[in-house]
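Annual report, structural modelling task.

Input specification for the zinc ion complex:
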Amino acid sequence: MPIWLGMPATRARLLVMNAALGPLDYRVPEGMAVEHGSVVVAPLGPRQVTGIVWEDERLPTDPVPEGKLRPLLAVLDVPPISAQLRRLIEWTADYYVAPLAAVARMVIASGGALRGPATMTEYRLTGGAPERMTPQRTAAIEALEGEQATIRELAGIAGVSEGVLRGLVNHGVLEPVEVDVDRPYSRAAADFHLPDLSDDQREVSDRLVELVGARKFAPVLLDGVTGSGKTETYFEAIGAAIAADRQVLVMLPEIALTEAFLSRFEKRFGAGPVVWHSSLKSTERRRAWRAIASGEAQVVVGARSALFLPYANLGLIVVDEAHEISFKQDDGVRYNARDVAVMRARFEGMPVVLASATPALESLHMADTGIYEKLVLPSRFGGAQMPDIQLVDLTEEKPGSGAWIAPPLRRALFDRLEKGEQSLLFLNRRGYAPLTLCRHCGFRFQCPNCSAWLVEHRLSKRLACHHCGHETAPPEKCPDCGEPDCLVACGPGVERIADEVTEMLPEARVAVVTSDTLNSPEKAAEFVAMAEAKAIDVIVGTQLVTKGFHFPELTLVGVIDADLGLEGGDLRAAERTYQQVAQVAGRAGRGAKPGEVLIQTRHPEAAVIAALEAGDRDAFYEAETEARRYANAPPFGRWAAIIISSEDEKEAREAAHRLGDTRPILEDVQVLGPAPAPMALLRGRYRYRLLLNAKRSAELQQVIRDWLSRINHPPGVRIGVDIDPYSFV
Ligand code: ADP
Ligand code: ZN
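The model returned the following structure:
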């Protein structure tokens, strides 16, 4: 849409990609065509900035006199950002009290994509042989049969240095090929391989297909037990969107999940989806971005950052495992991708499907009050039964000293190994031990940058901070008292549980599965293949194994410490424990053989543990709902956190108290704090927190904006606002 019909625009207001700057006005040089949403380059002092042309009235600023306007430099060769997406950017910035530019930067998520068409050089074998063969060259030539990629990627594939390959290029064994960076993706076909759906599944998928056809906003909670075929069912809706030439976004919580998902997707649609996540190479990133913006990308599967991309004609959003907290971003713009997905669907008019076996209480409440449509898959596909769940009371059934697996779970593990079935032990703690101390002087290894212990990782021989990434090699002697060989590990991590299993069952093949061991899609695929080929007897894993995986031979799940999640004492501790344990329990008995789940706990009487044992989800949600109502917690009341930080302790404390002293006094917003954050030091910054609890009627964001804008802080102080917080550290 041109800004002035029939008359070329002469000035343009820009939202520039720099959160420190407000809106800026420019002159549109003669002959340059811009419209609202155009992505442009503008001069800023001696530099250049990227900006998006915005409606003047939605981005008020003091007008600049005509004579002072500088001309825009260029309009970039990408489709303009649509009005609906501009409204979503505004809504997100407003709701999460974030700078508009910071949100817009998530839309323009690939600098490379803005630079227009590009080629790159790849290499492939010519069939020739070098004059002189070396073992490395022979190996490389063998490994690269049929491959074409950049030198760096080929070096990775062949396991040789880039130098070896450059030598082969000089000998004419490898030849360069110029390829279009934005070469097209293979096309998915709606009906490539149609499944045979059960009656329940068919009913749900018919409704989803109908909603895709209606092209109207329709929020749906797809509530189905683990293994009920939620994925299979929403694939039908994806098929309908593909057939109608509309794009689909599927958001998944973890990169590790995508590999299993991708092969399933490919079987169903004959081609993989376009993948989007933070570790894409820059060429793949720009290729994906441009295909998304042009409409060529049919289905995009990605982490939460895929939500803000400029889809040309989105027709369906699916948020799978929608209860997962990894949809909440806790730095930069602190947004919840699940909630913003619903807003995007509303602005652009399409169905949005939140799929989960353990929905967030907020989502369930929306369904129960009729705001979301609820579609239910009540039973597992193919007659598989839900697993039998038993508690192991650790106050009675004590593991031996230095051990964490109690006798009933030991017996069950023996039994599975004997029968040749798989077991899964769940403990949400990476590494070997969460704390290392000196037996002689009591010294504890602590992170220099954070209020946290260093976690011992024996497999990779290091002590690591899980918050900032600080690492050191485990020393031979205590750094404090100098005593040699005096360090002891306290408490278990998954590596230590794996050791305990190996000691107990020396012949068992044990795999440790965490983000440390499954840190790439290739490793994830390798693990899935090994588990499916029955090359693993016992999987010991963190929350990474609680979602998505489907191993038919897995018949035993042991939860090492169900109480762990309850200790933090944050608002959602009970809900999170319920979700994690129910999800990991859902890995058991998904095939023909029935599953058994043993939950180790010191608090069998706790409501959430009792509900897990009874398999009574409704009872848990009812009790939790009442507790939330009583505490004026979501979905009834609202929370917001303000985090004040500085590298200087005093500066942070003083800023926090300045805010505390000027707190708004309101009937419907209660301000708690300031108090030192539980993580009082994080990545070298001292932190204080204020917590706001508001009635739903309160204008919470406006209250916060007014309050924060009244006070100036020294430049070293950072103020973060977290609306609907999930993390309270
Ligand atoms: P959920 O997403 O609810 O956990 P999935 O969609 O992963 O369930 O389905 C669980 C397993 O059952 C998968 O291996 C899936 O391929 C299989 N399955 C589900 N529905 C069907 C169907 N209609 N036909 C064949 N296999 C199915
Ligand atoms: Zn740290």
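Confidence is low (pLDDT under 50) at residues 1-6.
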